[in-house]
Design brief:
Number of helices of chain A: 6
Order of helices and strands of chain A: EEHEEHEEHEEEEEEEHEHEH
Largest sheet of chain A: 9 strands, mixed
Number of strands of chain A: 15
Shape of chain B: globular
Number of helices of chain B: 3
Structural class of chain A: alpha/beta
Shape of chain A: globular
Oligomer: heterodimer
Strand content of chain A: 25-35%
Largest sheet of chain B: 3 strands, antiparallel
Radius of gyration of chain A: 19 Å
Low-confidence stretches of chain B: none
Distance between the termini of chain B: 4 Å
Distance between the termini of chain A: 61 Å
């Protein structure tokens, strides 16, 4: 049997200010392209040249690939992880990156980083509050030394039906708002979900106590020069770390409004 | 006992408290431990370091000053911030 090489279809996306071209090949390339383009519509990058190409093979094919699967659901799931890993590695030592959901005021660009470990509510908070404020990320909030935030508007993982895999849904399909072009880090919150609290509890954490907490939720911290000073500078410029205990995502709306302003 | 400080990635002080980074670990030290670590940079001898801690913080609430200083230094050593040589 001879394999016929199909032309690949390219899709340009961007995360944390880093351009990635997805080169999609394989027997299901067209279907995969449509689904990936839809899921990643919040992160499409129309103009600049890609800094990295990731080769994705959907279905059967003989092309070399960084990621391949016969099942498009699995492919989209794994693609999200691969792109996340790629952009975070590429910006290591350059951007400070928190494991955080990011929400921005739709007109001013004031951005809050809602820091939380994996599996503790970032996506839920993003899905709900991103309908009022701009969706910046449900995974990683990255910012440079001037506190300019570089969005990572990846698809959100949404549990659907009885499937064991979460679907990758675009922010647009979930009704989330777009943030403005310029985003500035304005507040940093460490979230702690706690079913026992009745109202949102906010505790201001002094810088030296905040750093060990935040370090655990920061990617590649050791790649920075004087990492503690850089983290401390960011915290102190944004009013210090706030440790917030909350029960459900809707309880956080008033706090976010206080920190970055109520959306119009 | 001799004390030797190990290299830190970074250290930041606010109001007498020190937070340090060693390898990829970030550790907040008490005021006493912060002072002991700072002193250990220049004072490598247990007894002189213990005397300096007493001068700054007063005598320890329990036990003698040498045991108290040794205990603080062992705590710092357990975090990989100093090495102790008998």
């Amino acid at each position: 049997m001879t394999s016929v090489s199909q032309p690949s279809i390219n899709l340009a996306i961007e995360g944390l200010g880093f351009g990635v071209d997805l080169s999609i090949s394989g027997s299901l390339a067209e279907d995969a392209y449509l689904r990936v383009a839809d899921a990643w519509s919040g992160a499409l990058r129309p103009f600049a040249r890609a800094e990295r190409v990731l080769r994705v093979r959907a279905g059967v094919g003989s092309e070399e690939a960084d990621l391949a699967d016969l099942d498009l659901d699995v492919l989209l799931h794994n693609l999200s992880q691969l792109v996340t890993q790629t952009v975070i590695e590429e910006r290591a030592g350059d951007l400070m990156m928190f494991h955080a959901a990011g929400l921005a005021h739709p007109s001013t660009g004031a951005t809050v980083a809602l820091v939380a470990p994996s599996g503790t509510g970032k996506t839920t908070v993003s899905r709900l509050l991103g309908q009022s404020w701009g969706y910046v990320s449900d995974e990683t909030v990255g910012f440079d030394e001037s506190l300019t935030v570089l969005p990572y508007r990846k698809p959100l993982s949404v549990l659907q039906g009885t499937g064991y895999l979460k679907a990758q849904e675009s922010p647009e399909r979930l009704g989330l708002r777009e943030p403005p072009a310029h985003l500035a880090l304005t507040a940093v919150v460490l979230l702690e979900r706690d079913a026992a609290v009745d109202t949102v509890e906010v505790e201001e954490v002094r810088t030296v106590a905040a750093l060990p907490l935040l370090a655990e939720q920061t990617s590649y911290l050791t790649r920075h020069e004087q990492p503690l000073h850089r983290l401390a500078d960011a915290l102190e410029a944004t009013g210090g770390l706030r440790l917030v205990r909350y029960r459900s995502a809707e309880d956080l709306a008033a706090l976010v409004g206080d920190l970055i302003g109520e959306p119009a | 006992m001799r004390v030797r400080c190990l290299p830190l990635v970074d250290a930041l002080e606010r109001d007498g408290e020190l937070v340090v980074m060693a390898d990829d670990r970030v550790i907040l030290l008490s005021e006493l431990a912060s002072c002991a670590l700072t002193l250990a940079e220049t004072s490598h001898d247990l007894s002189s370091l213990a005397a300096e801690l007493v001068a700054r913080f007063g005598p320890p609430p329990h036990g003698d000053e040498i045991s108290a200083a040794r205990s603080v230094l062992e705590e710092l050593a357990s975090h990989g911030l100093v090495t102790l040589e008998e």
